[in-house]
Specification:
heterodimer, A: alpha+beta, Rossmann fold, OB fold (Dihydrolipoamide Acetyltransferase, E2P), 2 domains, six-stranded mixed sheet, five-stranded antiparallel sheet, 20 strands, B: mainly alpha, MetI-like fold, 0% strand, globular
């Protein structure tokens, strides 16, 4: 498969501080790739290194096979959508979108045609003559997108572009971004700390923490099979329990857990006596449902009604509090009351055992 | 008076008793002397303080006074060149200090640029006089331009730097991201956006230079006298009605320059 970006052994120091620790991965052509992580994980630094605003302390970054290390930002065929949009306040919308084309010495007719095309793409044609200050946040966002896409970059970099928008707008922009990526066929590298955004839009997600790649996989794989405790915790909600590896044979390992249930998982190289963490997502646990592998007794101790969901906290007989999330599929469905005794159950395949 | 009004949370200064009287007193103190000068500039009497009748004659004599016109020309030339030099240096300094990466001793440099604002001007004037004599610079005009350029720099620097700091530096990165070279970025993005700051800095430099007395008085000689120095020499000979006319003319000229500048600055905001 052709790669849009190769990142090889890239590191970045700020003085003694290592912001990026020897990272290597590839970004495929035409994919929607997300760098996801908490603030300070190095995701923006990585993006800025691809854009040319930061110089790596070591390693190589290649754009479609060409080493771009020596190229300054203005010679790289990548464009950026900035977090605060960074629209030029002294130029109108059309001038903003045409700026990159003007710099690339396109002819005037070609610029006009491309600007028109871009305005159409982001549904902003009536606003061509407006100044950026006269636009709403969502409109500015679209112009920033149009401006960055106009010169047909090989890769589009997006630095938390949705974080300044309100919730409704953010959700509709997600769909639009995804559509835009499919329509243009340009590789998108999207930086965010919002796991929902990452899950919703990406072809692949790279989870970063403390300057290191934690896991690089599809959204589904990241959510369902997190590689370590950090990823399981950062993406979505989960119940963690400290467990110990018991008897091990070539196929399975027994897990000694505080729920007191018999649990055997496929052996992934566990050693007997090893400390580990067990993760169980709240939506994998059902209340008062028949026919599940594992069944426990518990008592509702907390309830949060969210509309589409209700989040419960259930205390089991041996004092473990589990978060349980129940989808409200039927109108006026049974609401479990505080202190109500319930049966909870889950499938053993829903359990993940994490060693790091 | 309604007592309950005093308990209103939003108590503006204008609601305090005596606000109007104090205000009138304040503005009288500020502007009454100026009003007197303007009025007596039209007095036909030779004796300044005794009103005789309306006359334009002191304006006519002021505008025919060769020493005065000469001093005005010197002041204007000095202010023009000092403004150009100071603004150019101040812009460069502001750009380096707010945009440069890894600038060593940036805080110290900024303090040094601003130091002339804190230094007593007489110290600066004496120092520069000694420097000029050491260097052997004789030309009066050159001395004035160099000295004025030096003390105008911090005045030009402050508004330019304020403007740069208020400007999102992502804009410059966005331009470079869109294939603009650093030079084009400066010309197309930075310069237009900090232009109001540069304009304000230049205006401030010009006014400070025009107005300067201490340095000009000490450094002048060599055939160049600025307007404030010339006026001071007139005052030493006694206050003449011509002086009133000159002062009024300068005031009108200042207002004519300042008003459009103020309007431009207001519009660009």
């Amino acid at each position: 498969m052709k790669h849009a970006i190769n990142i090889k052994n890239v590191s970045k120091y700020y003085g003694d501080y290592r912001a990026i620790k020897d990272i290597s991965f590839d970004i495929r052509d035409n994919e929607f790739f997300t760098l996801l992580g908490p603030s300070g994980c190095g995701k923006t630094t990585l993006l800025r290194m691809i854009a040319g605003f930061e110089i790596p302390s070591g390693g190589v970054i290649k754009l479609h096979g060409t080493d771009i290390q020596a190229l300054p930002a203005h010679k790289r065929c990548v464009n950026t959508v900035f977090q605060n949009y960074a629209l030029f306040p002294h130029m109108n919308v059309a001038q903003n979108i045409g700026f990159g084309l003007e710099m690339l010495k396109w002819s005037e007719e070609n610029i006009a045609a491309r600007v028109d095309e871009m305005l159409e793409l982001v549904h902003m044609r009536p606003f061509a003559a407006r100044m950026p200050a006269a636009l709403s946040g969502g409109q500015q966002q679209r112009i920033a997108l149009a401006r960055a896409l106009a010169p047909k970059p090989e890769v589009l970099l997006l630095d938390e572009p949705l974080s300044a928008l309100d919730l409704k707008l953010r959700q509709s922009m997600r769909d639009e971004l995804q559509q835009l990526q499919r329509d243009t066929g340009i590789t998108f590298i999207f930086v965010t700390h919002d796991q929902e955004e990452a899950l919703a839009m990406s072809d692949r997600i790279c989870v970063l923490a403390e300057g290191e790649v934690q896991q690089l996989s599809s959204p589904n794989e990241i959510y369902e099979n997190p590689i370590n405790k950090f990823v399981a915790d950062f993406i979505g909600e989960t119940n963690f329990m400290a467990v110990t590896i018991g008897a091990v044979n070539s196929a399975t390992a027994a897990i000694t857990n505080p729920l007191g249930i018999q649990l055997n998982v496929p052996n992934a190289g566990y050693r007997p006596g090893q400390e580990a963490t067990m993760s169980l997502r709240p939506e994998k646990i059902s209340i008062n449902t028949q026919g599940l592998e594992v069944n426990l007794q518990g008592e509702i101790v907390h309830r949060t009604y969210m509309g589409g969901y209700t989040h419960y906290k259930v205390r089991t007989a041996n004092g473990i509090e589990l978060r349980v999330s129940k989808r409200n599929t039927i109108s006026n469905d049974t609401e479990y009351q505080l202190q109500q005794r319930v049966d909870i159950g889950f499938s053993k395949t829903s359990v993940r055992v994490l060693c790091q | 008076m309604n007592i309950s009004a005093l308990f209103k949370p939003n108590r503006e200064a204008t609601h305090y008793p005596g606000f109007g009287a104090v205000g009138i007193l304040f503005f009288s103190f500020l502007y009454f002397p100026i009003l007197v000068i303007i009025t007596y500039s039209f007095n036909s009497n030779r004796i300044v303080s005794v009103w005789q009748g309306f006359s334009w004659k002191w304006y006519a004599s002021a505008l025919q006074n060769e020493g005065l016109l000469n001093a005005l020309q010197v002041s204007f030339t000095v202010a023009l060149f000092a403004t150009l030099i100071a603004t150019a240096i101040a812009t460069a300094a502001a750009l380096v200090l707010s945009r440069g990466k890894n600038v060593k001793h940036a805080k110290l440099s900024q303090a040094v640029v601003n130091l002339p604002l804190m230094l007593p001007e007489i110290v600066f004037a004496v120092a520069i006089l000694i420097l000029f004599s050491q260097l052997g610079i004789q030309n009066g005009m050159l001395k004035l331009i160099l000295a004025h350029s030096a003390f105008c720099i911090p005045f030009a620097f402050l508004p330019i730097r304020a403007r740069l700091q208020g400007m999102d530096n992502n804009l410059e990165q966005a331009a470079q991201d869109l294939y603009a070279t650093p030079l084009v970025t400066f010309r197309r993005i930075t310069l237009p956006l900090i232009a109001p700051g540069i304009f304000a800095g230049a205006m401030l430099s010009f006014v400070i230079s025009m107005d300067d007395f201490i340095t000009s008085n000490i450094v002048s000689g060599g055939g160049a006298t600025t307007l404030p120095v010339y006026i001071f020499s007139l005052v030493k000979q006694g206050v003449s009605p011509e002086l009133n006319a000159i002062s009024t003319l300068i005031m009108v000229a200042s207002l004519l320059i300042a008003t459009p500048c103020w309007l431009i600055a207001k519009r660009s905001r």
